[in-house]
Amino acid sequence: MISAGLDGIPIPRYAPALARRLQLVCASLHAEALAGSGIVMLEFATLRIVAELPGIEQWRLADAIGIDRNSAGLISEGLARRGLLDRRVNGADRRARKLYLTPEGQATFKHLLPKIRIANERTLAPLSPREQQTFIDLFVKLIEGNRAYARPGAGRRKRSSDAAEKET
After folding, report:
1. What span, in angstroms and rounded, lies between the C-alpha atoms of 158 and 168?
2. For a FRET experiment, which of 38, 40, 113, 150 has its CA 20 to 30 Å from that of 157?
3. Which pLDDT score is estimated for 3?
4. Strands 85-89, 56-57: parallel, antiparallel or unpaired by DSSP?
């Protein structure tokens, strides 16, 4: 089903099209909030996760943000080069990196957080406070309920022949 938006532009009423449009809204508003900071959305997401979960391993960060592990490594490495992030070798697994904000990273995060909060408020502004909470709760429920697909490459990767045989 398709309905017309306030501007007359058709809005397909199915999840992928709506999710894509919402992603555009979020990306635009967050780009405005981060303008001039030298930080992009995925870098801020990294700072935020590390601020809230100091010592998180890099692979868990990737899963939390919904990016591949290589990208998480590149983002973390770039933030570390800029003095915003400290990547420490995990004593239990020398290949793994635990992430911490540096003092400069903490200051950057604290400086940008109010701007990101305003961008989030602007994103959800068309909804009442109760609708906002319901929307976020339902959004999380959809992601949790589809966890196997809520990762980079899901649905695009070829399935192993073993998995395909089990279904037949």
Report:
1. 16
2. 40
3. 65
4. unpaired
- Both structure tokens of 142: 């959809």
pLDDT per residue as tens digits for the range 64-107: 998 998 999 999 999 999 999 999 887 776 677 899 999 999 99
Domain housing 51? 39-120
Residue 156 resides in a domain:
no
Q: Is residue 60 part of a domain?
A: yes
Side chain identity, residue 21: R
Per the prediction, the chain carries an average pLDDT of 87
Rounded to an integer, what distance in angstroms lies between the CA atom of residue 150 and that of residue 152?
7
- Is the overall model pTM greater than 0.90, yes or no? no
Give the long-range contacts of residues 107-114, CB within 8 A, separation 24 or more: 108/37, 108/39, 108/47, 108/84, 109/44, 109/47, 109/48, 109/51, 111/37, 112/33, 112/34, 112/37, 112/39, 112/44, 112/47, 113/48
